[in-house]
Design brief:
about 45% helix; disordered C terminus; 434 Repressor (Amino-terminal Domain); homodimer; DNA-binding; 14 helices; 6-stranded parallel β-sheet
Chain lengths: ~375, ~375
DNA sequence: TATGGTGATGGTAGCGCTGCCATCAACAAA
DNA sequence: TTTGTTGATGGCAGCGCTACCATCACCATA
């Protein structure tokens, strides 16, 4: 009796024997039923059911030198932002045979490199990575990955393969222009920690102020300083924002710029903190102070007053990335290398200084339908 | 020239040849360096580096009838709650050779079954699943999975294998008792959509009110009704809460129960909406109305007034689950089948009706150190 | 009738790795 | 010396599946 190392589960050979066909026919019937005649397909399906056969993906991957794994690298798992992108990705995968494997780079290029190397061991069917600031090594790994690579949440003239996102510079500029239009003059930029996308927003903010002759390095420089300050304090190395940070950052910025009359926050969470700080100080929004955030998470609309923000299409970005990936895997042509999904400046009461917007809180640009952004049911 | 189906990447045999050793020795050197002498290990490492060898995980998994995949099933990706659990899981995995594969069940038992079947094709090294309300089929699959299975975020007398979580009933009861203690009498329960964990919280709430002789089915029944209402309205089938939902639900509950003087919200996001609604109506919190949430997300502390909540240890649950998994994989004994990580009732200004708590907003129970819960930097 | 094309099916030979055993040197114990 | 033990190393034979080709029946065309 020779010893077998199997775990006892039925194999494709067992199914083939039971159905009275060759193993390869079973393989075909499972992968693409149209390749097999109806009669055999039914016999095979029956055999699969009777035996409770479960295909072994490792064997499939080994034999075909190609797995069904789609590797996804995001800089953060906790933020709604990337959670939304991920949700779009999962929704795009749907019930296909593809599987997602997520790596959390924590905004660390070395970690990104390491995770990428791990992913490549799987011979992934495709890769989705966040942003464009990979290390040269990582970039080379992506180029040699021998599978479609989609970059997301930013734009670039020179994507590895394809990129889907929007211009953070333009978004930052658009919101700043809105703040200027409604009459704010001393507009600060509030940010905890800056990544390349934040920097794009900041540069848009600076450009808008410069064009309006309102640029003051004091307001702009503060961003970097405050970010450093944020990292030094009780806020640890995890690179995310909290409302408490927003409160502290606003207090600090006010100390430096007493005549500040509005802030453009790098993200909504900071904006929420700013609103709380204003509430606590009894400062009226938007009359005495304007508040704008970024991303338009769902609490922005529900806040009192509703908070202006830049709506970004995170779910769509993730979803479209997978659709593009699937297209490429199916061999369909895909010539658009750069896809700009755009953004919307959502003007709400928190920046309605002159009462010029329509019904307070609802004078949105284009009134796009609300995104499905989740909250907290356990 | 025989045709090879390889993708041209170096294999373990190439490394072995270059290092002048047997393939199996390379295999050992890579898996457990201590099994190989220093001299050979160095030669092998050099060969790996020179060739840029990347192990093929599919081949490894096939040969060893065991993959390095840890399957994780969560009901939602977007909620901070499960994002925190996931972060704990990723942190627990660290730099081990294990990989995570996440499935999003969307609170759907059929989908959970389907995802589980998918996962089992990988011959996973371990499984982490949320909660205890699997379908009988899913339960059977878990029991036959032939790998460690950890259930998380709930408790049960009869775990598949091991469970790590806390009692939602006790947590709901404890917060309700706090509301009673500080003097509220007409305490509502606010919830969008109820899952088994929400129901646990609700039952704790009911029990506390009954024990205090304050139980009124009007307040308690409202929860179910309102949840149904929530699902009917603009809120779609995604089963999460938004602040806007909190506002609408509170308005509806007030219509039914005009003398309502506090609400215990099923989650923090609803509580935030309730606060906004109170702000908008000019109702003073906590004097005229008490607000409590659940989970203690980071905006609760920063709100104005700070909002009371039940702190849950999501990161720890995920982290401990992986640690337990790794223990079992290493063959270490692990007799504790049920791990209760507990919870903390965080008493803040939003429920400080009589001003009995210390400094308003900081009289926490046990003052546990704040959890790292992320916000929104893109 | 001969020929060739088409579609369904099967056999063989790997895919790259590891489990199992064998081997062998070095040394301890009898 | 003989025997046994230990640790390092290697050979062989799969793991379960699919790529590649061969085969064969069937039909259309010359």
């Amino acid at each position: 009796m020779s010893k077998r190392r199997t775990d006892g589960k039925p194999t494709i050979a067992d199914v083939a024997q039971r159905a009275g066909v060759g193993a390869i026919t079973v393989s075909r019937a499972l992968r693409d039923p149209s390749l097999v005649s109806d009669a055999l397909r039914e016999k095979i399906d029956a055999a699969v059911r009777e035996l409770g056969y479960v295909p072994n993906l490792a064997a499939r991957a080994l034999a075909s030198t190609r797995s069904d794994v789609v590797g996804v690298l995001v800089p953060s798992l906790t933020q709604h932002i990337f959670a939304d992108v991920l949700r779009g990705i999962y929704d795009g995968i749907g019930k296909t045979r593809l599987h997602i494997q997520v790596g959390n780079t924590r905004y660390d290029l070395n970690e990104e490199e390491r995770l990428l190397a791990e992913l490549l061991r799987h011979k992934p069917a495709g890769l989705i990575v966040s942003g464009i600031d990979q290390s040269p090594t990582a970039r080379r790994m992506l180029e040699n990955a021998n599978c479609p690579v989609i970059q997301v949440m930013d734009l670039s003239d020179d994507p590895v393969n394809k990129i889907i996102g929007f211009s953070h510079h333009n978004a930052g500029k658009a919101m700043t222009q809105h703040l200027i239009e409604v009459g704010y003059r001393r507009i600060g930029f509030l940010s905890g920690w800056m990544n390349s996308r934040s920097k794009g927003r900041l540069s848009g903010y600076v450009e808008a102020l410069e064009e309006a002759g309102l640029y003051d390095p004091q307001l702009a420089n503060a961003a970097g300083d405050l970010g450093a300050l944020a990292l030094r304090g009780s806020w640890d190395k995890h690179q995310y924002s909290t409302p408490a940070m927003g409160r502290e950052l606003l207090a600090e910025l006010w100390r430096r710029v007493p005549d500040l009359d509005a802030v453009f926050c790098n993200n909504d969470v900071l904006a929420l903190g700013v609103l709380f700080e204003c509430n606590a100080r009894g400062i009226s929004v938007p009359q005495d102070f304007g508040i704008a955030g970024f991303n338009d998470e769902d609490f922005m609309e529900a806040a009192s007053p509703p908070l202006s923000s830049v709506r970004t299409h995170r779910w769509k970005v993730g979803h479209d990335a997978v659709i593009a990936l699937r297209r490429q895997l199916d061999g369909e042509p895909d010539d658009e290398k750069v896809i700009d999904v755009g953004f919307d400046v959502i003007k709400r009461a928190s920046t309605d200084r002159g009462g010029v917007l329509g019904r307070a809180g609802d004078a949105n640009v284009g009134t796009p339908k609300p995104m499905a952004v989740g909250g907290g049911t356990v």
